[in-house]
Amino acid sequence: MASQAPDWIATARLLRRLGFGASGPAVDAAVGEGRTAYLARVLAADPSTDKGVLATPPPALTLVQRVRAGGDPGKREAARTELRQERQELLAWWLRRMAAATEPWVERRTFAWHNHFATSLAKVQQPALMLQQNQTLRRLGGGSFHDLAHAVLTDAAMLRWLDGNKNTAASPNENLAREFMELFALGHGDGYTEADVKQGARALTGWVIEPDGRTTLRPKRHDDGTKTFLGVTGNLDAAGYADAVLAQPQSAGYVLTRMWRGLVSPTPPAPATLDDVLAAYGTSRDLTAAVRAMVTSSEFTAAEGSQVVSPVEWAVGAVRALRVDLSDDRAAHRLVTHLRALGQLPFYPPSVGGWPSGQAWLSTASLSTRLEAGRELAAAGDLSIVEQASGSNRLEAAAYLLGVGGWSDRSAAALRPYAGQPASLVAVALSTAEFLVH
């Protein structure tokens, strides 16, 4: 079928990768602005002045005092109820924020870091601690990876998730030291030994979570002896541990390649492209400069059609394109139900390695769930662009509504029977390859 111009299609991909989905009017505006100007504005956007962000302030969560087994049954049930309500409130809030942000890049970036430093409410238990980590990822996620990594290493949710709060001089726990190197900063077994894991664990001893959610170092729990870790010898603490890890020559390439795979393509960048991104990242580990280098590389445009969107990207992209109102609790909770069925719920990654990616999201089993969710979203959305088009033009109108450059013959054939039913047409369009793969 007829498609949009190449510049429109390339700009649409930029919007989708720097946010959640796209829409025809938004792509038109970005084309008119010019990709260079659009990119500069989005990467420099200030969330504190974003109307959608201001309209969705974070919930006021408090640490829930749990009642030990054997305690008062009524108090135990009250604590469980409070935790359940806070979980629902936290989930609904972030989905609303993703959908409402005028410039969604910061939320998209925060979600990417949530997958990188994967931490789950299933073990952390306290929504207030997960919100605290979420705010840290949002605040630092566009600055220096040095600052971000340091902050996450002693974050309360991370300490609880990887047993860092149980790591003492008398009984070292290696979990956080190992996973930080293996998954967050270096890669599996790349440049470190079991001896480094043990010495790193010693450096990370002594951190505890205070009753108010702050984390502090308790000197009596910390091993203040000399350690030799990754070639560095001294009385290392958490900061010394993080600095030694990030100083490893393979760290920058590992971090940037993980970012690339989430943002651009599942195929790693060519060596010359990675060199350009590394140069932008620099000794200051500038994350925004690295992103700019990635999305302005020739490989970014060439990677069109390579990135399968995750369920959260898909659902929030549909909500934004269709302007679905999530202010009603029922609508937000229904979206949570669909995301749970699709296998990706914010704050609940399945492991410290984060969620799967790529073809894992295109299973046959997920199709019926996606179609059901698509029908609900289409029924609740603004379909006027499609409804006002003549029957023969409705497929093109649906593509424009969803920020899609055009339909393949296969997708067009699947959509054509629904041309007389705008809601069904859009619901099916949400499950086409063009909407699911960027």
Describe the 3D structure:
The structure is a single chain. This protein has helices at 6-17, 24-33, 35-43, 51-54, 73-100, 105-116, 121-124, 127-140, 145-153, 156-161, 175-185, 194-203, 238-246, 249-263, 271-281, 287-295, 298-302, 311-322, 329-342, 364-380, 384-387, 394-401, 409-415, 422-429, 433-436; strands at 207-209, 215-217, 227-229, 232-234. The radius of gyration is 23 Å and the shape is globular. It is mostly helical and 438 residues long. The strands form two sheets. It has a two-stranded antiparallel ribbon. It has a two-stranded antiparallel sheet with strand order 3-4. It starts with 5 loop residues before the first helix and ends with a helix. It has two domains: 6-37 and 307-436, no CATH class; 144-263 and 268-302, no CATH class. The chain contains 25 helices and four strands.
